[in-house]
Amino acid sequence: MSSVNGDPPHVFDLLGQALTAGRRGMEAEVADEPHHLRGSHLRLLSMTPAEGLRPTELAARVGMTKQSLGEFVATMQQAGFLHVDPDPADRRARIVRPTAKGLRLQARILEILAETENRWRDEVGARDWAVFHRVLSHLAAGKAPAGGSR
């Protein structure tokens, strides 16, 4: 595995490959579902709280546009995993929340994620995993890792 010019792969390539491996593993674990859900659908469901969220808030949480979210929600709604109801605080607004079926799949997704993390931690060792997790957490928060050199 190397870049176009023969250099080692860059970090974004490596992260992408790791995420693809994780996504494929998760998709394989839920392949018995009658609706063939992609990793992006599973991610949406895993990030939708039981109490629900307005589409704008959910889109921001998931990192997609409200329009794209609408397409995903429609697919998940037709499959019976999500439902959209009027917001009791503002009848003009909507709330997206998991159905009972969605909550069951959500629990399964979270189990698969935990199993994947445990397997990866076992593969690289607890110490390296802790460093990896700390670095990713800092980067996700927009901060440089503590103690890192620049």
Automatic annotation (TrEMBL):
It comes from the Bacteria. InterPro entries: HTH_MarR-typ, MarR/SlyA-like, WH-like_DNA-bd_sf, WH_DNA-bd_sf. Residues 8-141 form the HTH marR-type domain. This is MarR family winged helix-turn-helix transcriptional regulator. The lineage of its organism: Bacteria, Bacillati, Actinomycetota, Actinomycetes, Micromonosporales.
